[in-house]
Specification:
Oligomer: single chain
Number of helices: 16
Strand content: 15-25%
Helix content: 40-55%
Structural class: alpha+beta
Bound molecules: adenosine-5'-diphosphate
Largest sheet: 5 strands, antiparallel
Length: about 600
């Protein structure tokens, strides 16, 4: 920019000087030529009239004999100031007198009769001889006129004027003119330089503003301090910047809206170009497919998803500019059930040629499966005691009713089945209440030793029946936990009930508690057969029983541990189990302390 600025300033200065020079030279030359011509003409006419005067003066003088000496004396008296050389020539062409020669020298001079102007004058015609060549200011101007008396030519008087005098007169005009010109040229150069400087300074400021605007500083305004075209330029620049800013703000607003929608939408969105290279993806896509956006942008869809079906869907959609939807299994990791919508963009000029919208159906399908399993399990669990009751009723109606002892036996068995049915229904209701969030927890600080002991006492008959001894090691020092009293009782009852049920006769149960961070971890350890590693991760699932026949025999519903898990999690804690086949199991729960 500096270079352009300096060069512009130089150009203006040079242009001013060139115009001035051209103008001056043209005017100067024309003026000088004219002046020279008019001066020369003036000199000529003066010469002719002076010559004429001399011819008149010499008319009488030249008639007398011996007048030549007198004329010579007269001419010698003219002095150096007289501009003309006066030569008097006899009618034979000999020089009689000359103002630039002494009398003695005259005889040495050649005849002047051959000189054109003299020859013409000798023939009776006054003549003027101008110097040959281009210059009108060099050489000598001659004028000759016959000196006649009584119609007889007695001689010729010739006047010579060296044109140097004209030259010096011209110089006298030219020199001050040149000095004035030099001064004016300097002033013009200075003015041009100043003008260029101020212009380039303004232009430089405008260019700087333009650069800052182009660099993104759209609040920058050009300072308008002139009233010329630069003002219009500055105003246009300011207008450009403000409308650009307006447009950018609008575009940014639109972009923000779009980004907010895309980033907060639950569906994963992925846009590709015509070559099926990823150009954009949203946060949900990262979450669903466990990918990082930065790593997939610019890569081919197949390379990113490793799924030919999705790739083929989008390829077709882009090619046909149509949309299609289907649900499929994505191999992952992680494995996902996806509802895939592939759409081709209609606008061929768009950078985005196709869009994939992925809805994660994994959880929905899983829940659907769970519900289906649950219904199947519930039906199965209900069917078994009902079939049994139905059988007993048939038997009774078939005649057993008359046998009192048999009737009593069957009715007792039916009683057990109905009790089981009622337990099952109670557990299902309890579980669905917890799951639906309807089970309101009235959390208060509870003493674990006291609450656990209450549950132990309730189960005393079962313990005694199975000859299982229980050791409650939960100390009174253990901090109180924040829990719902009834729910905590249910947790203890379910866990202790299992520890008794699945214990060996004469076995032991140890209750233990310790504080870990803001939680208390309670463990119930039994000396039962333990749980196989294959069953261990599933014991908290609904209706899961490791040994179905035995568990059902024990009167279990398969929902006890599921209820424990849900209740503990509703309290903000967690459950777990550690077990070794043949040695026993240790279930644990954590509960928040009340502090
Ligand atoms: P159930 O009503 O059958 O006891 P649970 O949900 O309480 O149902 O238990 C699920 C299964 O976990 C049981 O059927 C049993 O196989 C296993 N289980 C639970 N507690 C123990 C334990 N203390 N020792 C061994 N197995 C157990």
């Amino acid at each position: 920019m500096n270079f352009i600025g300096q060069s512009l300033s130089r150009k203006i200065t040079s242009a001013c000087l060139a115009v001035f020079l051209l103008g001056f030279l043209t005017t100067g030359i024309l003026l000088f030529v004219r002046l020279g011509r008019s001066l020369a003409a003036e000199q000529r006419s003066q010469l002719v009239s002076e010559n004429h005067l001399w011819a008149k003066t010499l008319e009488t003088l030249l008639r007398d004999k011996g007048s030549a000496e007198k004329i010579q004396v007269l001419l010698e008296q003219l002095g150096g100031d007289y501009p003309y050389r006066v030569t008097v020539i006899s009618k034979e062409g000999a020089v009689l007198a000359d103002s630039r020669h002494k009398a003695a020298e005259l005889s040495t001079l050649q005849s002047y009769g051959e000189r054109p102007e003299v020859a013409s004058a000798l023939k009776g015609r006054a003549a003027l001889s101008t110097p040959q060549g281009f210059s009108i200011l060099e050489g000598t101007l001659y004028s000759a006129e016959p000196v006649a008396a009584n119609g007889q030519i007695s001689g010729v008087v010739r006047l010579a004027l060296p044109l140097e005098t004209l030259h010096s007169r011209m110089a006298a005009i030219r020199d001050p003119l040149l000095t004035g010109f030099a001064l004016a040229a300097m002033l013009v150069a200075l003015a041009g330089f100043g003008l260029g400087k101020s212009l380039t300074a303004k232009l430089r400021r405008l260019a700087l503003t333009a650069r800052q605007v182009a660099g993104g500083d759209l609040r920058r305004k050009a300072l308008i301090e002139t009233e010329d075209e630069l003002r219009t330029l500055g105003e246009s620049l300011n207008h450009l910047a403000s409308s650009l800013r307006q447009r950018i703000l609008e575009a940014e607003g639109e972009k923000q809206k779009l980004t907010a929608i895309l980033e907060n939408i639950g569906e994963g969105i992925l846009a590709v170009d015509a070559e099926l290279k990823v150009v954009a993806a949203n946060a949900s896509l990262e979450r669903i497919l466990n990918l990082r956006r930065q790593e997939i942008i610019g890569r081919n869809l197949l390379e990113v998803l490793f799924d030919y079906k999705i790739h083929a869907m989008l390829l077709e959609a882009v090619r046909d500019r149509q949309a299609s939807t289907r649900e499929l299994q994505w191999a992952g990791p992680p494995v996902r059930t996806l509802n895939v919508s592939a759409a081709g963009i209609q606008d061929p000029a768009s950078v985005v040629a196709g869009v994939l919208v992925l809805t994660d159906m994994t959880q929905i399908r899983k829940l659907e499966n769970l519900r289906r399993d649950f219904v199947a399990n519930v039906s199965h669990e209900l069917k078994t005691p009902l079939t049994s009751i139905h059988g007993f009723i048939e038997t009774l109606l078939g005649g057993a009713l008359n046998d009192r002892a048999q009737s009593e036996h069957f009715l007792r068995l039916m009683g057990e089945d109905t009790a089981r049915l009622s337990r099952l229904i109670q557990d299902i209701l309890e579980l669905s209440k917890i799951e639906s969030g309807q089970a309101l927890l009235n959390q208060t600080p509870l003493n674990l030793q006291r609450e656990s002991q209450k549950a132990v006492e309730k189960l005393r008959p079962a313990l005694e029946q199975k000859k299982v001894t229980i050791e409650n090691k939960i100390s009174a020092e253990i901090p109180a936990v924040l829990a719902d009293r009834d729910k905590l009782a249910q947790i203890f009852l379910n866990l202790l009930d299992n520890a008794i049920k699945f214990n060996r006769p004469g076995g032991t149960i140890i209750l233990h508690a310790e504080k870990t961070g803001g939680f208390v971890r309670v463990s119930i350890e039994d000396s039962g057969p333990g749980i196989s590693p294959a069953d261990l991760p599933r014991v908290f699932e609904r209706f899961y029983r490791s040994d179905r026949a035995r568990a059902r025999e024990s009167g279990g519903t398969g929902l006890g541990l599921a209820i424990v898990k849900h209740l503990v999690e509703a309290h903000g804690g967690e459950v777990g189990c550690r077990s070794e086949l043949g040695k026993g199991s240790c279930f644990h729960i954590t509960l928040k302390t009340s502090e």
